Structure formats: structure tokens, C-alpha cells
């Protein structure tokens, strides 16, 4: 069985990029509405993403996808027959699985998304 666990460093890296975007976005909104304290958007955006990252870490980092026989099995009830996979995309530290019926699944926070994609492609009959 091949497993694809979430990677802590990829999780932190993703949240670092989200924090930078949130900080810039919050400052832009404050500037657009004419707020004289534009700088307060930076710590607000940072705090929001740090809180989100801390709150969700135990859940997100506990997810493990695996190839089990002829299926790709994810957390909860997620099970995708390998023969039904239409397309595999990488986006940052994520691997997106698109099925022939249009369902989409994300394998999040992969240390090496290209290697995850290649392993799944090799398993497809």
C-alpha cells in the first residue's frame, strides 16, 4: 500500500503564503476605504491565518491518502477507483484528482506533489 500523508513543512509553507496574501489584502481593503491606519491590516491578516493554521493543524495533518488495491482511498468516505481518474493536477503543495464523472478531490500538503502525482499515475491500470 502506498500512502500520501500530509507534510508539516508543506502545511506551514502554504500558510505562510496565505498569510502574506491576507496581510496584503487586508491592507489594500483598508486603503481603498480610506482608513488612515492601513498598517493594521498586516497584523490582522497575519493573526487570522496563524489562528486558522493553529486551529486546523491537527485535523489537516492527520489526513492520509493511500492506494489500496485498485482504489485511491482518502479520509472519511472518500474512495476513488483508479480506473475512474480522468486527470491529475498539481497546484502548489496540493494534488487534484479529477474523475471521469467530474468529481474533484484534493490531496493536500504534499512534500513532493510531483512524486505523489507520478505514483498515482503509475497505479492507474
TrEMBL record:
Q: Which domain of life is it from?
A: Bacteria
Annotated TM spans:
12-33
Q: Which UniProt keywords apply?
A: Membrane, Transmembrane, Transmembrane helix
What is this protein called in UniProt? PH domain-containing protein
Q: Which organism is it from?
A: Falsiruegeria litorea R37
